[in-house]
Target: Cytochrome P450
Amino acid sequence: MPVAEDLVAPERGRVLNPVLDGFGRSARAHEHRLLSAARPALPYLNWLGMLARPLLKVPSLGWITADPLTARAVLNDPEHFTLLSEGGVGHLWAQILGDWVYDLFDGPGHYDLRTRSRELFTERTSTDFVRHAWGTRLDEARAAFESGEELDLADLSRVLVGMMVVTLLGLPVDASRGDAAYREIFETGEELASIALGTTADTVLPPDKIATARTIVERLTGHIGDAFATASSDTIIGRCRDIGLSLTETKGLSTLLMVAGTETAASAMARTAALLYDTGEQHRLIENPAWRENAVREALRVTSPAPLIGRSVMADLELGGRTLKAGERIMVLTWTANNLAGDYRVDRPYIPQNRQLWFGAGRHLCLGGPLARAELNAIVDLLVGDGRPFRVVSRRYGRKVLIPAYESLVIAK
Ligand code: HEM
Model:
């Protein structure tokens, strides 16, 4: 639950050492500083969210809610809420990718697409993707870490996510450049996301931003044209073709996978490590390795890497005792809603009320949820799989980033 301290602006970008830093022992304080460094308004919004149960209207922002049931009512109601009109993320994407987004992203084609793509990421295919994409790089990192070397997990997360993108999209990459090549892929995704999702106030993109975004999309998906006809059904491209998507749609969906699954996943990886350390919960997890699944779910809940989900109201409706009017906007404060359930506990059981609100809900529920979980499982294994605890040596919060994340999180055994 946000406290007065949450409203104090942090010293942005300062390297913190938990031994020296008076607040270092508090996982909650670190999470709040991380949010604040990313977007200074976030802690204020979260604080306002305390009052938004079920709903609150904020001048110049619109409606906000931090109530899980109200949040799900919004996300499960395509009759009254859309992400396609101005104010929604689909509207941004349509300007970059084309008008097909209006059908396939939220229109009648969306249901069909989701039904057909349901099997893209299952628990099994996701574990396979992780092994295939990260294999030896993760093994190397683990060996060095377990032998006592320091590891910047925030940097490694960006590299690993870059490797995942390369695997999923079959992107040609000069592997001889090592980590640098994958960092670059991550940064490209970051750049695209900052254009496509970087505004919550106005979703009309100026022509120069549309042109830049289209150039990036072409850089990331230009190769798909050649691969489309022959790609194996084991790859995302082949799977998209098999489920009947056109080349344009496959390129579009690949772009979305890349944008939706890069910063969010990297953010969760380093923040999971920080939480395990700051709360001391790593010791309980080491004693009870069977709690791994809970530990991962809890990390997703407490970090909620996509802290806000926006929608536009399409038609007047009554919700939570208030009247929402067509044309208004509403923001679901996922971070607040999820954190109100309590602090990080590796043995906390599933919370039926919250379900997996960190992945959204309803027709747009995260397509990559199983992949994100498989990635976090592998990271938790890296951290404590040898049965020994680790410590955070230093950390630096990412400043002015779309998805709150550690810029650096150096850990050691
Ligand atoms: C911890 C990591 C992740 C978090 C917290 C997360 C969160 C979310 C949320 C909240 C949404 C719903 C957005 C909305 O309703 O407007 C979403 C949608 C989506 N996510 Fe994720 N995501 C994560 C990882 C991934 C990964 C790894 C992938 C794939 C590689 C992915 C692919 C997608 C796609 C394609 C959608 C759009 C689904 C649709 O509109 O039908 N996500 N994600």
About this structure: The longest helix spans residues 123-146. Residues 1-24 have pLDDT under 50 and may be disordered. Residues 83, 89, 114, 256-257, 260-261, 264-265, 268, 300, 305-306, 309, 358-360, 364, 366-368, 371-372 surround protoporphyrin IX containing FE (CB under 6 Å).
